Amino acid sequence: MTIHPISRENAEHYIWGGVCDGWHLVKEAKLSVIEEHMPPCASEERHYHRSAQQFFFILSGQATLEAEGQHLQLSAGQGAHIPPGIRHQFSNTSSQPVRFLVISQPPSHGDRFAD
Fold this sequence. Notes:
mainly beta, three-stranded antiparallel sheet, 0% helix, six-stranded antiparallel sheet
């Protein structure tokens, strides 16, 4: 097995929510690591995952993570763990873009349910 550097430049890219970018840094059956870019005033829809746990980690900027009514303000170098079944919503209410990692185990695609 050969190990190679992984970055946005060589990772699979996708657009979500019409304005947000995601790069699959790790896309395996049991683990997903995605770097995401969210512009100011953008937000994902509130949802939950039945099986996947997630860890959101801010690389740059600031964001709000609402989980079951609790609002966390996260800045660069901070993160939050969301266990399965917890309703949550990630938002950028700031005037600057936010870059963050979403680590999911198992991967959350296909395991997303509207609130």
